[in-house]
Amino acid sequence: MSPLSLFTFTCMVLCAVHCFPSEESFEVSDEQEEDSVNDNSLKEEESDISTLLEKANKNVGQGLDEPTVIGDIAIPTDLGNADPCTSRGCKWRKSKNGVVYVPYRISNQFSSRERSVIVRGLNSFKASTCVQFIRRRRQRDYVYIQSRNGCYSFVGRRGGGQVVSLSRRGCVYHQIVQHELLHALGFNHEQTRSDRDQHVRILLQNVIRGMEHNFNKINTNNLGTPYDYGSVMHYGRYAFSRNRQPTIVPIPNSNVQIGRATQMSSNDILRINRLYGCRKSE
C-alpha cells in the first residue's frame, strides 16, 4: 500500500470512529435489524406467555430509574398494594365522540421491524374496541414504550409519561405487546381473578421461593365475563416453577391449555368494551 493510500485509509477509519452517532440518537441499521435478538418467531415450547415474561424479566427492576416490579406489573410508590384501581380513577378518559384516546410514544431504541410489531399491537385495539392508541403530541398523560430491563407496565392510567417496558431482549412479540397494554388499560392477570379458585388450582409448593406473590388473588371487577383460559392475560401451566412441576392446573379438566394465547381473546375484547362503555357489538 502506497503512503497516500495508507493515509486515505487511516482518515476513513478515524472518521468512522469519531463521526458515529451517540447512543441516545442511535437508530438500528438494517443489518443489525437482521441480527436482532427478536425475530418474532418462536418455537412452540417457548411461546408460553409466562415463560416469555420470566425469561425477559430476570433482571427487571435493577436499574436505578426503574420502578418496583412484581411479575410484570410496575407498582406505584404511593400505593401499598396491587388492588384494582379502575373504580378510583385510573381509567383512561373517554372523549365526547365515545372514543378512548390513549396517547403513546415509542422510544427510538427499537429497530423498524420491532417498531412495526409494537405498532401492530397498538393498532389491534382500534378494530374491536373504542380504545385507540394515538401518537402523543402535547398530551400530559401517555404511555411511553421503551426497551428497559424486561417486560412490565403499571396497571391503569398513572398520569404523566408512564413507562411500558418492552425489552428488545425477549418482549417484542404481538401477544406480549397486547398483554402489557392491557395492564396499562387497567387489567390484571387472569389467574389472579377473584373467582379463580373455581377454575384453576394454584400449587404454591412448586413455585420458586419468593415468587408466591405472582399468584395472589385480587378482588377484581370481572365485568360479568367468564373465566378465560385462552386470555392473553393468563399465565402458563409452569409459571415460576422451581421444580418443573405445574404451578397452575385448570379444573375440572386439567388438560385445558393455558398461557398459549397469541392474541387477545374475545373475552379480553369484551372486557375492554364493558370497562370503557364501548358501543362495539358484544
Give a verbal description of the structure:
Its EC number is 3.4.24.-. InterPro entries: MetalloPept_cat_dom_sf, Peptidase_M12A, Peptidase_Metallo, ZnMP_hatching_enz. This protein has six helices and nine strands. It has a seven-stranded mixed β-sheet, with helices on one face. Strands 8-9 form a two-stranded antiparallel ribbon. It is α/β, with parallel strands linked by helices. About 17% of the residues have low confidence.
**Class computed from helices, strands and strand pairing:** alpha/beta
Our count of helices gives 6
Global geometry: globular
Secondary-structure element series: HHHEEEHEEEEHEEH
Total DSSP E strands: 9
Poorly predicted ranges (pLDDT <50, ≥5 residues)? 6-45, 77-83
Rg over alpha carbons: 21 Å
Mean pLDDT: 82
Adjacency order of strands in the biggest sheet:
1-2-6-7-5-3-4
What is the strand content? 5-15%
The portion of residues assigned to helices is 10-25%
Please outline the major beta sheet: 7 strands, mixed
Tell me the distance between the termini: 75 Å
What tags apply to this protein structure?
24% helix; single chain; 7-stranded mixed beta sheet; 282 residues; alpha/beta; 14% strand
How are the SSEs ordered, and which strands pair?
Layout: H1 3-18, H2 30-34, H3 49-56, E1 68-70, E2 73-75, E3 100-106, H4 112-128, E4 131-135, E5 142-146, E6 151-154, E7 161-166, H5 174-185, E8 200-202, E9 248-250, H6 266-275
Parallel strand pairs: 2-6, 3-4, 3-5, 5-7
Antiparallel strand pairs: 1-2, 6-7, 8-9
Helix pairs in contact: 4-5
